[in-house]
Amino acid sequence: MEPAPPQPETELSLDGARILVLEDEFILLLDLEWVLQEAGGAVTTARTVRDGLDAVADGPLDAAILDLRIGLESAEPVAQALADRSVPFLFYTGQVGDDPVLRHWPSRTVLPKPAQSQTIIAAIAKLLRRP
C-alpha cells in the first residue's frame, strides 16, 4: 500500500475581519497590511500609540497585531484598551526576551519578527477562532 499524497496547505481566510496593525516601522506595516488584506482582512493601521488608541476607540475591531515597542513608547496602553473591549490581540515583535510588557500579558501570543505570511494569518485566524 502506497502512502497518500501530501495534501495541499489549507488556505486560511480572514474574510471581513477588522484588524488593527500597530507598527512603527513603515515597511513592516505595509507588509503586514498587504498580507492581511490578501487573506481578506479589512486592515486599520497605526504607527503611534496615540493613533492606535484612537483606532481602538473608533472601532469596531475583531483582532489586532501590536508591535511591542513603538518608538520609545510601549504598546501596552493599546493592549489594555483592546483587552477592555474584549478584542483579541497578539504581539509581533523582535523583543522576545524577558520584557515587562510580555510578563504582564503572559497568555498572549507572541510572534517573533520576521514571521512567514502563513504564520501571521494562522495566528490571527486562531484569535478569531476560524479554521
List the helices and strands and how they pair.
Elements: E1 18-22, H1 26-38, E2 42-46, H2 49-58, E3 63-66, E4 69-70, E5 73-74, H3 76-84, E6 89-93, H4 100-104, E7 110-112, H5 117-128
Parallel strand pairs: 1-2, 1-3, 3-6, 6-7
Antiparallel strand pairs: 4-5
Helix pairs in contact: 2-3
Identify the notable features of this structure and list them briefly.
single chain, 131 residues, alpha/beta, five-stranded parallel β-sheet, 37% helix, 20% strand, disordered N terminus
Short description:
The protein is α/β, with parallel strands linked by helices. Helices cover 37% and strands 20% of the residues.
How would you explain this protein's 3D organization?
The protein has a five-stranded parallel beta sheet, sandwiched between helices. Helix 2 (49-58) packs parallel to helix 3. The protein is built from five helices and seven strands. Strand 1, helix 1 and strand 2 (42-46) form a beta-alpha-beta unit. Mean pLDDT is 85; it is low at 1-10. The longest helix is centred in the first third of the chain and has 13 residues, at 26-38. The N and C termini lie far apart (31 Å). The relative contact order is 0.19. By secondary structure, the protein is α/β, with parallel strands linked by helices.
Helix content: 25-40%
DSSP summary, beta strand count: 7
Instruction: Tell me the structural class.
Output: alpha/beta
Mean pLDDT: 85
Strand proportion = 15-25%
Q: Tell me, what's the shape?
A: globular
Q: With helices defined by DSSP (H or I, 4 residues minimum), what is the helix count?
A: 5
